[in-house]
Specification:
Elements (H helix, E strand, L loop, with lengths): L6 H10 L17 E5 L5 E5 L3 E4 L2 E12 L2 E6 L8
Antiparallel strand pairs: 1-2, 2-3, 3-4, 4-5
Length: about 80
């Protein structure tokens, strides 16, 4: 259960999934190559032109993009990326 985890770990995992600004998929997924995305945690992950995210020892894929929310744009991924160093 999430309540069994240290609050700082939960905070760090959440901040690792968020970038600054309202970014539509075309500003996240590059046409070619990779794009490095700075997170609110202060770490980065990269996204390739197929929508695969590569983090430190983790990968995930964008499965649904451009879901509008009042405070940003959501891109659903198929795994939790962890800020493991």
């Amino acid at each position: 259960q999430i309540s069994d985890l240290p609050a700082t770990l939960v905070r760090d995992v959440l901040l690792y999934h968020v970038v600054d600004g309202r970014r539509a998929a075309n500003s996240v997924v590059p046409r070619v190559g990779n794009r490095t995305m700075p997170t609110l945690l202060g770490a980065t992950f990269s996204v390739d032109n197929q929508g695969q995210i590569t983090a430190i020892g983790n990968t995930a894929n964008i499965t649904s993009a451009n879901i509008s929310a009042s405070n940003g744009i959501i891109h659903v991924i198929d795994a939790v990326i962890l800020p493991i160093q």
